[in-house]
Amino acid sequence: QVQLVESGGGLVQTGGSLRLSCTASGSIFSIDTMGWYRHSPGNQRELVATISTFGRIDYADAVKGRFTISRDNAKNALFLRMNSLKPEDTGVYYCHLRRGGNDFWGQGTQVTVSS
User: Among 26, 46, 49, 64, which residue's beta carbon has the most beta carbons within 10 A?
Assistant: First the structure.
């Protein structure tokens, strides 16, 4: 069982930056796929960025060039650096881990970008 806790959300103006962190209660391994998803009002939860088992990184088109995902297995942590934030980036951001077909989610952290 893995518990994920996000932090780093908040209110920021358009063009600003935030860094989200996700800490796992147990150990995370290189075989785990980890990622960030977001849920905006009126929309379904959507993928933001992932780091797969072999280090492959994928971003949603909407965030390419602005967001950077990274992980530190030694610290059981996942990060999301968000630059040039836009109002449409507003939403609850969730940390996700997949291990052996099992999915684990954090409770989410709110990001609000004001125009």
Answer: 49
